[in-house]
Amino acid sequence: MKQNLKNVVLAAGLACTALTGQAQNVRPKTTQTVSNSLMKQSTLPFNAPDFSHIKGTDYLPAIKLAIAEQRAEIKKITDNKQKPTFTNTILAYERSGKNLERISNIFYALVSADKTGEIEKAQGSIVPLMTEFENEVKFNQKFFQRIKYVYDHEYNTLKGEDKKLLEVVYKDFTHAGALLPKEKMARMQEINKELAKLQQDFGDMLPKAANEATVWVNDVKELSGLSEADIAQCKKDAESRGGKAPYCIVITNTTQQPILASLDNRSLRERVYNASIHRTDGTGAYNTFPIIVKIARLRAEKAQLMGYKNYASYSLEKTMAKNTDNVYAFLRQMIGAYKPKAEEQTKAIEEYMKAQVNKLASGQVDKLTGEQVNANNSSTSQPVNSFTALQPYDRFYYSSKMKKDQFNFSDDDVKPYFNLDSVLVNGIFYAAHRVYGLSFRERKDIPTYHKDMKVFDVLDADGKQLALFYCDYFRRPTKRGGAWMSAFLKQSLDRNQKPLIYNVCNYAKAPEGQPTLLTWDETQTMFHEFGHALHGMLSHCKYNTLSGTAVARDFVEMPSQFNESFASIPEVFNHYARHYKTNEPMPDALREKMLGSLNFLSAYALGENLAATCLDMAWHCLSPSEVPTAEEAPAFEKKVLAEIGLLNAQIPPRYSTSYFNHIWGGGYAAGYYSYLWSEVLAVNIADYFAEHGALTRKVGDDFRQKVLSRGNTRDLMTIFSDFTGLKAPDTKGLLKARGM
């Protein structure tokens, strides 16, 4: 999930020269403003962006104008001769920069979801501009002294959201380095500039590396095991990527590739797996390690400048976990429960594989290896013992077969019941209606940045408009991998602004006229991202800075993970899980088999997450001198995993260091643990719903009022406790939910 930027340039992660007299005098020119569509007031409902008029060449000049506009607004605050007050300083700052936030939100939406050559070119100029302006604002001492004066003199007398806004603004500046001495402040600004460029370079390289890693297939026989629809998708993907061969397999974000569960041909499985794990480690056309080690050193130096031992300590200060000791205590508790299960399950898969190979009849071509098997039950090119040793690229294949044998169904049996349109309307929207009283109405009059998108009005129980919701579900070469939620505009009572929320996913689009069918995991992803969307839609906060998903990383994933629980509630499930041809609900027996299998061999999912989390923490617990070189980085990864007991070829990290976009290109540095942390919160909340009525409006309205509507207006642990009645999160719930 991608979090919305708070006031865009005023968010963590965007870096940013001291305010100069020359820069202060810049003013937006009226003639330029009129000629640029992005600087004009939108005539669409709720200030929705009018993509029918926005051109790729509009963004850079519009952002330059918007920066000049906010610069003038801040100068007006600093030039005010009156004593600094909440109203003339903090509130004035909160109300500044509206155009910059709006335009930047639109631009960064396209950077992630539809990065054409024109957008990529604009990004190369816009990122440095935004970085410079971030530095300019955060290290403007005249401005900060006004903020500090208000904090020192009014913090104890303010109440509610006013008090919280003052606290957030003040700490935002101090956390950026506003209290540093001049020489350290100058170095911090240089670090911010360097980091912004490096993070952009990493983000640019990753999708290109994934495209380069595409596995080309000449003979359709090699695709044995795939469904007709999957083979058709491989053909379509090959055509859209230049047609180097008739078919291709596209590499997704994660280490393990979902397609490995179906491919019979072992040598092709090995090619796909190797393409995935080596996409950016220097063995191919791309190598991200030189960028990564520079980012790690600069972050470590930044933390030291701020007086912290390492970047993790610096970053965690603003989270629920608070410090590295708490994070590692949490992780070790999980690792202790996970390891015995992982070893047990790996052994079971290995035994199953051996049994399968031993069943092969003499003289047959082995589907598992794609090789001729002779009468002695061995391959003509390698002994049977060699290919019965379970490899990482075998695990999904054999676990899928084990699952089918044990539960007597396969993913292909259930996919016809997960039509994307039905999942959205009859599942996600239906659950939101039952729990929160919401209704959704598709609109055809709101322009989008891509023809595959849909837009919906979001209506409250009383019929009043709450939000606009945009869906962008299908993958394309211009979209980065993964799934996320963000906003073109956030909710704010002070600004009289309704939220404009969007979800983005990467599903393979079915051929024209055919329904797009999803796996169960993809179905859950849709529910997950819509949970984030609800957090934005149902926000009811006074200030833009505090609204919606503007919460700590280890809380922001809770609403999304909790919303996944509705996908399997029988009443909701039966409402959307209907055969795309007959509209018949999934048979009870098949539904019970599928839902009963969800925790089958569940150690893998927890283990890959734990391994990635520990890599993230290890990289960000280093001092500058401890950061390895680019050449040493792969060995460092193995050392870290070995020391914490997670070096396991069978269960590699969900994201290896070299393609871990969450921490090197996204906003989750020293924060990937938050997915597990907030899953604990989500399970606790789901348990509360189950006990008090999962689909009852009373419980839903209570959750909406106490949690989803509150944004960052209160202490997050207090928000959690007020709803659940728990004084602290109960980690046992997560292990139980994961079948451990």
From TrEMBL:
**One GO MF term:** metalloendopeptidase activity
Name the Gene3D superfamilies on file.
Answer: Collagenase (Catalytic Domain) (3.40.390.10), Neurolysin, domain 3 (1.10.1370.10)
User: Which co-factor is required?
Assistant: Zn(2+)
- Pfam families assigned: Peptidase_M3
Q: Which GO terms describe its cellular component?
A: cytosol
- CDD domains per the record? M3A_DCP
Free-text comment on the cofactor: Binds 1 zinc ion.
Q: Which keywords does the record carry?
A: Hydrolase, Metal-binding, Metalloprotease, Protease, Zinc
Gene Ontology biological process terms from the UniProt entry: proteolysis
SUPFAM superfamilies given in the database record: Metalloproteases ('zincins'), catalytic domain (SSF55486)
Into which family does the record put it?
Belongs to the peptidase M3 family.
Annotated protein name in UniProt: Peptidyl-dipeptidase Dcp
- What organism does the UniProt record list as the source? Prevotella jejuni
